[in-house]
């Protein structure tokens, strides 16, 4: 069964103070679609045909890993967003405070890591063990699952994620992102 472009769980027009519908159209409709198409092409006729995207990410390498991981990373990223600011669920807020001194401390460290992530890649909040959280940068299609960690939140810092709206102002994009995190989704990823 081929991989398909997942529908967004919200209307991109509702994000007027984050990124424009034009950015969503290119990022979701063009970039993510291209990664899905690339993964479908590369699995066809291979031992990976019929495997889930996550199975491909966890066991492949080279061009197939790049296409599959970028497809998975993007789908996860779009699920991390919400047009309406949310309160952080109590359990997650407690874990953020325990691991980063406070929720604000987490946001400051996450933003600094995302802004400082050199080149193209992703900044992740991941669970590394029971009640243990860590902020981690990956380059290109990197994904913390391949190192045995559980992703909770990610921000795409490839320029295609923000350049139409923010140009070279990555810090402004990261700040706006943190105002649009779907904390319910993030909390639901805890193990």
TrEMBL record:
It comes from the Bacteria. It holds the Pfam family Sod_Fe_N. It catalyses: 2 superoxide + 2 H(+) = H2O2 + O2. The keyword Cytoplasm does not apply. Residues 90-188 form the Manganese/iron superoxide dismutase C-terminal domain. Residues 3-81 form the Manganese/iron superoxide dismutase N-terminal domain. Mn(2+) binds at residues 27, 74, 156, 160. Its EC number is 1.15.1.1. Keywords: Metal-binding, Oxidoreductase. GO terms for molecular function: metal ion binding; superoxide dismutase activity. Belongs to the iron/manganese superoxide dismutase family. Destroys radicals which are normally produced within the cells and which are toxic to biological systems. This is Superoxide dismutase. It comes from Candidatus Anaerobiospirillum merdipullorum.
